[in-house]
Amino acid sequence: MKTKFKKFSSDHENVWHLFNQMSDGLMITDYQQNIIAVNPSFENITGYSFEEIVYKKPNVFLSPEKATHLNFKEMWKNIHSRGTWTGELETKRKNGEAFTSNITVTSIQKQQVEESLYFIIVKDISSRKKVETEITRLANFDELTQLPNRTQFKKIINEAIHQAKKNHNTFAVLFLDLDHFKKINDSLGHQIGDELLQQIAKRLQNVIGANGTVSRFGGDEFTILLSPLKNKKEAYESAKKIIASLQQPIVCAGEKIYMNTSIGCSFFPEHGTDYTTILKNADSALFQAKKAGRNQYQEYNDSINEGLIEQLQIERDLRTALAEQQFEVYYQLQMDIETGKPYGIEALIRWNHPERGNLPPFIFLPAAEETGLIAEIDDWVLQTACAQTKKWHEDGHEDLVLSVNISKKQFDRPDFVKRVKQTLRETGLNPKQLCLEITESMAITHIDEAVDKLKKLKSIGVQLSLDDFGTGYSSLSQLKNLPIDTLKIDKSFMQGSGDEQENHVLVKLIIAMAKTLNFAVICEGVETEEQLLLLRTEGCNHAQGYLFSEPLAPSNCELKMKHITENVNII
Measured between alpha carbons, how far is 357 from 268 in angstroms, rounded to an integer? Predict the structure, then answer.
């Protein structure tokens, strides 16, 4: 193989003989990242001969459709700063076959730059990845029906709770039990019983479609998540469709089988705000459905009317709250990581209910949306927060930026931009010091209309932030077209980041991507010094979380700002 490495002197022959014996692939590039050498293992792994890739760049065997470009840029950034990098990349063989590689890149720097080299070790770990994927599938999916199992359904519900709290949505959980299924197993055998369960799983998926997730909870029990919901009626209609679908004959091994099902239904947050409570209440409703005669659905508490009464009570209380000014805007500080000083504040509504105490928004905003009162509440929050921020500017906090969450109904109003202009005019707040936070789903739904509104807001000077980034489904191409200033990283990505876990990598990648697109970055949910150090190291602009301040009433927020400003080393 000497002919392949003309740039190496005879002094390197012993070392290179060792490299030739390596089972891992080895590639060497010059200081301009041109390939100048590969070993036989690299040729075997990738299918490329040395002659085919000499003086080409290493990305010749990377997989662009797997978005490795971003990983690749991050990789070289670390190599230049730390001298080495190890990680996984999606790669491809000469024949186009994709495979996962564990790659280590080491920089060998010389006094003469042109003599510097990069050593790249490539391990094909695709077989290990396939095993890991299969283990994950077996742990989270039912082998018979291929539906999510109980373990996976718990994860799905917990994520639904998180999203519902963030987006002020509601969702429903349906708990199904097939009536008298044991008779099928006893009379026709377990093989037909299994086939029947498989066909029922497909029917449930056809009924629910993209409106939710079907899971096999165990035996002849199924659970269904319907999220998000506009109102309870959607859940009731889904339950009716399920009952009607299963009453149609199912043919198994030539036998026509007719099935009935009983369904219990619970709603978030009305019937629980955690997985255990929501599921337990749906199960209780299922018991009531069976007790009432089977082949029907029941809502938790055994009464749809009670649910309507509760809705009317919430509506009555909300109207009273508006009239009697029971709402209050709290503010959570947003910190400039570089200076350690307050950069901005996020406005967060609270309801000082006379009987139930201080209520967070996820408790009452779904009801406000259901009754249409959300529009009036949104207007009040924007007006109040802008007025308060203007006062703080006059009191010496002249650079403070106000962030306000915008609901979908608020954003979808035809006169939304006009209302923002009017609020700014009435309160005297500088448009450049107002940042409106929208979610990914709001931005990419009817994207042309959304972009038009956002451009109009930008034209008057308002800043725009994409809230909870990383939890939605916007593509990079869509993101590039949005006239936004800031990406706000959802706090869920900070969980475990200080321990170099997966979320750590995701935070770094989001920050790197944001910089590439010239967006500022703010990360919420910062609770530890380790998390702050991560963000500072990666060049994140701003941070928000309990490390600095919880949401505070205006007077307490002002004291907190003053204290931090006078003691900058607090962070």
Answer: 20
